[in-house]
Amino acid sequence: MKKMTILSGKGGTGKTTVTASLATLSSNAVFADCDVDASNLHLLLKPEVKETIEFKGLNLAVIDPERCIQCGLCEERCRFNAIHDFKVDPIHCEGCKVCVEICPVQAIDFVERICGYAYISETEYGPMSHADLIPGMENSGKLVTLVRQNGKKLADDGGHGLVLVDGPPGIGCPVIASLADIDYGLVVVEPTLSGIHDLERALQLLDHFKVEALVCVNKHDLNDENTAAIEEFCHEENIEVVGLIPFDPEVTKAMVAGRPVVEYAPDSPASGAIRSMWERLASILS
Amino acid sequence: MKIAVASGKGGTGKTSVAVNLALSLGRVQVLDCDVEEPNVHILLKPDLDETLPVELQVPRILEERCDYCGDCARFCQFNALFVAGETAMVFPELCHSCGGCSIVCPRDAIVEEPRRIGRIVKGTAGEIDLVYGEINVGEALAVPIIAAVKEQIDESAMVIIDSAPGSACPLVETVHGVDFCLLVTEPTPFGLHDLKVAVDVVKILGVPMGVVVNFAGIGDRGVYDFCEEKGIPIMMEIPFDRRIAELYSMGVPFVEEMHEWKQRFRDLVEMIEEMAP
User: Fold this and answer.
1) Same domain, residue pair B261 and B200
2) Is residue B18 within 8 angstroms of chain A, CB to CB?
């Protein structure tokens, strides 16, 4: 089984558009949407949820006013600035348990909190693992890990040869969680100066975690000079540019229609470019 | 006055809005809190004045005192410590620096030491003071770096804060305590879906908000219908314009070439000042 995460560093470069189209072109794949705090893949793949799993994050400290003697020690020792006026602010509580430990009168309870829901679903194109994070909740790294592991399990159980992971933007906790135990990282970049800057950091991250990097330039004709610079940079770094997707208004139209672009407008320039990219990817992944 | 520029979905134009807003106002402080992928400096091209390390206190186990009782590992909620047999290990990249392990250790065998996880950079671009944070590649925790950037807030200035995308911890840390939050979105189903989540978070934080629709003209009416239904004002529309996109690709803020936008951004701030408490 091969596992590939589609990531980008910079947000909004077309990760989900690419992932959804690759999903329709693949056969025998499983899909995992690891962008749990801004998930969009379900809007195109229209999963039917088969199983919902409550996701518990780290516990929450709760001060019982009946038992509290208002000594203020917890506020003093909380390093997350989460305690004020003998109350815990759930938004800032990281669930470290220090206050529970040091309270001299055991007035602080440590309660479970549901941070989100993970789903096992079926789509027209294959099984899908995805999730929702409850707004304002932490722990998206752990929820990402759960979604990625559920994807792998679906592939194991169903004998699927490929897991396609739609990754979150950035290079921090959720991205790192989406790259664990992954063979390839396909970085989708736009030819802007910001995009190039973020591509370099995303590639450093892949290198750091020993995940093989592939690159796809989206809207490559927006700035030919920058696209050439990306290709040259990748060539020097020995990273393959597997696809060049042109700017194409059909991509947005497909999104509005709620369908992967290669299905919605198979003859459009972007769809042609994604199909060529898939041919190359299929041979790399096989 | 502190204005955060945020969004659920990435790539909707937060940084572009923050930078063009700053350039239209002149004397402001800009904080780039998208510490995983900071981009403001690419558009503002500041002269850099100072770089400061961002450090977290992480445990070190004094082997000569440790008797491998395992209390620290059992206590740690982040799985950053491991004790088995005659081995005690720290996984510093998992440590949230709560200090719990050194509190529970019965033999005072844990000391805390600073570990560098990123940096903040300060600079100036014309009248604009810029502070941006940058997480080291391979580090997971963005929040302490965002907090370090926000420590640099000039309370006497107009402050514009660029946020990371998403709706999780980085957004919460960035928007917490600001006077107003501008949510930048695109009028598409993806933009709408992620806007809804971001609106929920900003509401929980109790910060007044308004929406900027970027790439107006593409997509559908979903974002407009949602904002109307929820009573969230659409404070500006920036049309989808290939020229704006091309300028951005070259790292040029569009107000520098399309001067009429400066007044529109100044009007936007006037509207914000009327709405913020």
Assistant:
1) yes
2) no
CB contact under 8 A, A255 and B190: yes
Inter-residue contact A222 to A191 (CB < 8 Å): yes
Distances from the Cα of A7 to the Cαs of A104, A175, A176, B99, in angstroms? 47, 8, 11, 34
Instruction: Say what percent of chain A tops pLDDT 70.
Output: 99
Among residues 179-238 of chain A, which lie with CB inside 8 Å of chain B? 190-195, 197-198, 201, 204-205, 208-209, 222-223, 226
Separation of alpha carbons B83 and B263, rounded Å = 62
Q: Domains for chain A: give ranges and CATH numbers.
A: 2-54+116-285 (3.40.50.300), 60-112 (3.30.70.20)
Report the residue from A91, A190, A249 with minimal CB separation from B172.
Answer: A91
The whole-number pLDDT of residue A138 equals 77
**A95: contact with B, CB 8 A cutoff:** yes
Task: State how far residue A159 is from chain B, nearest Cα, in angstroms.
Answer: 31
CA–CA distance, A160 with B5 (Å, rounded to integer): 42
Residue with tokens 């769809």: A271
**Residue B141 maps to a domain:** no
Q: Which of A79, A218, A219 to mutate to test the interface with B (most CBs of B within 10 A)?
A: A79
Q: Per-residue pLDDT tens for A143-196?
A: 999 999 999 999 999 999 999 999 999 999 999 999 999 999 999 999 999 999
Instruction: Say what the ipTM of the complex is.
Output: 0.94
- Please give the structure tokens belonging to residue A253: 């139209």
Q: Does B197 touch chain A (CB under 8 A)?
A: yes
Average pLDDT, chain A: 96
* Spatial distance between the Cα atoms of A255 and A19, rounded to a whole number of angstroms: 13
- Please report, in angstroms and rounded to a whole number, the separation of the first and last CA atoms in chain A: 9
